[in-house]
Amino acid sequence: MSYKTLVTVVREPELDRSHLDAALAFAEAQDAHLHILSLGIEHIPPEAFYGGTTPIAIQGTISDAIEEATAAEAFANEQLKRSGARGEVQRVVAQMGAVSQIVAQNAQLADLVILSKPYGEGRSGEDVAVLEAALFSTRTPVLVLPQGKTIVPAPKRVVVAWNQSGEALAAIRAALPLMREADSVEVLVIDPPRHSAGTADPGAPLAEMLTRHGIEVTVSVVAQTTSKVSDTITRHAADQGADLVVMGAYGHSRLLEAVLGGATRNMLENAALPMIVAH
């Protein structure tokens, strides 16, 4: 198993340069095809559809989105030509309400979506919406990269946050190709239930499964020493010198769409390492 179809999204050239370059390098290393979506988002307020905005203002918003997508497309094509990766660039302009559908259409058949960390300087709700669409509308795993981070060459130390959930297992399966190349993989179990199956040796069944894939595995059972589980994971990964974290992504419903849950959002906000997350 390896990654053969990758997808990434570019909106602002300078802000997205880091993760695009990382995606191109990863595609080349994996001999994969990279589909680059250059996305322009129309910021048309709801009142515009009820006569609350002038046609000139609406046209200006649409023109801004087209310019944004065109600039992102030109930048992505230039970076693609400079790299040794295979791929193509697709320009799309959409209203904010259609972003989820657009991302889902382009990412649903991918092995992995590669996106920048959606929080931090210069980031906005649009970046969060793109990540949520990839995770919850397609169930495609996502590699989230903090600014300036990459996974080429392959990570050497991987921490897997394991809570026996389907989401965590989906992320683990998605990360198998990378974990096979790692020097060590640590299954991290935080405050396991005292009265449940596998209490005597939490993490052992997962470690056994990973070992069958030729992965060197250790299991660490730790107490939650911070107010948030995400902080415990982040601190432990840093203490272990990890260069990749693998974990499930959790969400809750908001009207007709799923949005990031608090624990997942906190983890992403504070992430200093690349993460593979899946729902």
- β-sheet strand percentage: 25-35%
CATH architecture of the largest domain: 3-Layer(aba) Sandwich
Structure summary, number of beta strands: 12
**Shape, principal axes of CA atoms:** globular
- CATH third-tier fold name of the largest domain: Rossmann fold
Instruction: Encode the helix/strand succession as letters.
Output: EHEHEHEHEEHEHEHEEEHE
Radius of gyration: 20 Å
Helix content: 40-55%
CATH homology-level superfamily of the largest domain: HUPs
Mean pLDDT: 89
Based on secondary structure, the structural category is alpha/beta
Intertermini distance: 20 Å
How many domain regions? Answer: 2
Low-confidence stretches: none
Strand order of the largest sheet: 3-2-1-4-5-12-9-6-7-8
Discrete helix count: 8
- Biggest sheet descriptor: 10 strands, mixed
CATH class of the largest domain: Alpha Beta
Task: List key phrases describing it.
Rossmann fold, alpha/beta
Would you mind describing this structure in some detail?
It is a single chain. The chain has 8 helices and 12 strands. It has 2 domains: 5-143, HUPs (Rossmann fold), CATH 3.40.50.620; 157-277, Rossmann fold. It is globular. β2 (33-42), α2 (55-82) and β3 form a beta-alpha-beta unit. The strands form 2 sheets. The chain has a 10-stranded mixed β-sheet with strand order 3-2-1-4-5-12-9-6-7-8, with helices on both faces. It is α/β, with parallel strands linked by helices and 279 residues long. 41% of the residues lie in helices and 25% in strands.
